[in-house]
Amino acid sequence: MSDELDIDTDALAKRMDGALSSLKGDFASLRTGRASGSMLDVVEVEAYGSMMPINQVATVNVPEPRMVTVSVWDKGMVGAVEKAIRNSGLGINPVMDGTTLRLPIPELNEERRRDLTKVAGQYAENARVAVRNVRRDGMDQIKKAKAAGMAEDDQKVYADEIEEITKAHISKIDSALETKQEEIMQV
To answer: In this protein, which residues make up the domain named Ribosome recycling factor (predicted)?
Structure first.
């Protein structure tokens, strides 16, 4: 078998692992009733003509278990950071104190917990879509290899291997979602 007919399933698996690690980062940003600096990782601020993660325009600290502070470096960016946090869907209302924003973390009520589990479900679905896109890329590689003369048996072996990798990653995503939803619903 020549190199052009080989399908790199390890590279496909690494790309799927990337989707899984991205999902875990998204889950870390969901709050579960305690303050965490990573909960603001998903917030992007319009700064200097482009969208930037909040940690590139401010310092995020957790001085107390139910408080996050955001110290904005540029005084002119305070309003944009506040707006980004309000519009992020995290359910937090920042309190301005000069160039520092204080974010009191309210106790989660039942309705907000349900909303957060839905958000977690959306993050998981995005990760599933990413994994399926990688699967599709792998299947496209098989089609190209078929046109280049790959044997049907080899096509079947690679297709089965890609399906197996996909199922394993989807299963990991589902179990991570289940764990996160249980964590959110804990009172």
So the answer is: 23-185
